[in-house]
Design goal:
By secondary structure, the chain is an alpha/beta fold. The chain is built from 8 helices and 13 strands. It folds into 2 domains: 110 residues, no CATH class; 252 residues, Alkaline phosphatase D (PhoD) (Purple Acid Phosphatase, chain A, domain 2).
């Protein structure tokens, strides 16, 4: 094992009990209140670091980390967050600065640019890893059905970071170009889900419950940035780009199409492996049904509506192991036996790979 890759939401900002495992507090937060001040963020990070299993993980191999929203507050953007009340909770500028300071104090992250986590690491001639900051520079999330998701003046990366990413991908001389990406870049629409499935899925993905399937916190809410990036990959014949994604507490294996509406008749510009949560609630937890119940129904419907999605598991908790050779990049998905049991075991669930030069995902039937 060369490194652990953590793609955001290392901590949560909520008060104790507000965002718990199926509504059950396994371990109380410290401080018990929603974290707002520098002292709050420092204490919360410190509480997480008392976990002996987390300490063992950090001891085992280097942790490569970026932040997402909950290191600040839910659905954070450059000027605020859904879970921030300006005035009553101080200013967003002060809260964001406090969260960043505590993060850099407690996390093994060496920023290349002060105040942000975007940077690039290199693994010899085999791969480089571009790590993104999709919170510090983004425009406010669009209201679903507002008609503004395609507005070219809205951004998820900010101009400087997008130019940096494009230039780095073009100049890369490695076999593989990995992108550490906190929110899903492949497009996603809900399709024809029944009401009992639509409501919990909408809650998990921050979607409206009226069936409109655009998650504006993901790249779906910033389509001009995505269009520019994918066009750059295609026009410069940049292959072997693999997005490694967290955020949504589900496992996915995706092609990243240039035009999802005409896919697979049109091209795929990249591939994406999305890894589920280790402990945070996912779809079956929200519905409060046995693991696998929801996924068996929802996954086929999601794939019908999203032809670039090769696999989705909405229910199980776990992690992924990425193995790269000159010929392929393979993600082995592992699931936990019981997230509430400190002695839980893990088992292999599935594997997907992308072979060099293809820009497409395919299933493989053996883990590395």
């Amino acid at each position: 094992l060369d490194a652990w890759l953590h793609l955001g939401d290392y901590i949560y900002e909520y008060k104790s009990g507000e965002y718990a495992a199926r509504g059950t507090v396994v371990r109380p937060h410290s401080p018990a209140n929603e974290i707002i001040t520098l002292a709050d963020y420092r204490t919360r990070h410190g509480k997480y670091k008392t976990d002996p299993d987390l300490q063992a993980l950090h001891h085992k191999a280097p942790v490569v980390a970026i932040w997402d929203d909950h290191e600040f507050a839910d659905n954070a953007w450059s000027g605020g967050a859904v879970n921030h009340t300006e005035g009553a909770e101080g200013t967003w500028t002060a809260r964001q600065a406090a969260a960043k300071q505590a993060y850099f104090e407690w996390m093994p992250v060496r920023p290349a640019i002060e105040g942000t986590t975007y940077r690039r690491l290199r693994f010899g001639k085999l791969a480089d890893l571009s790590l993104l900051d999709l919170r510090s520079f983004r425009s406010q999330q669009a209201s679903t059905a507002s008609g503004t998701v395609d507005d070219p003046n809205r951004t998820i990366t900010g101009r400087a970071q997008l130019d940096w990413l494009k230039a780095g991908l073009k100049a890369s001389d490695t076999t593989w170009r990995l992108v550490g990406n906190s929110v899903m870049i492949a497009p996603f629409v809900i399709g024809s889900l029944t009401a009992d499935l639509l409501k919990p899925l909408a809650k998990l993905l921050d979607l409206p419950q009226d069936g409109i399937g655009v998650n504006t916190d993901q790249w779906d809410g910033y389509t001009d940035d995505r269009r520019e990036l994918l066009a750059h990959l295609r026009s410069n014949a940049i292959g072997n780009t693999v997005f490694l994604t967290g955020d949504i507490h589900m496992s996915w294996a995706n092609d990243v199409p240039v035009d999802a509406g005409t896919y697979p008749l049109s091209a795929s510009a990249a591939t994406e492996f999305v890894i589920t949560s280790v402990t945070s609630d996912n779809l079956d937890d929200i519905v409060k049904v046995p693991e696998g119940t929801v996924s068996a129904i929802a996954a086929p419907l999601i794939q019908i509506a999203n032809r670039h999605v090769h696999w989705v598991d909405t229910d199980r908790h776990g992690y992924g192991v990425l193995d790269i050779t000159a010929d392929r990049a393979q993600m082995d998905y592992y699931v936990l036996s019981d997230r509430t049991n400190a002695n839980a075991t893990s088992s292999w669930a599935r594997s997907y790979r992308t072979r060099t030069g293809t820009q497409k995902v395919e299933r493989t039937y053996d883990p590395v």
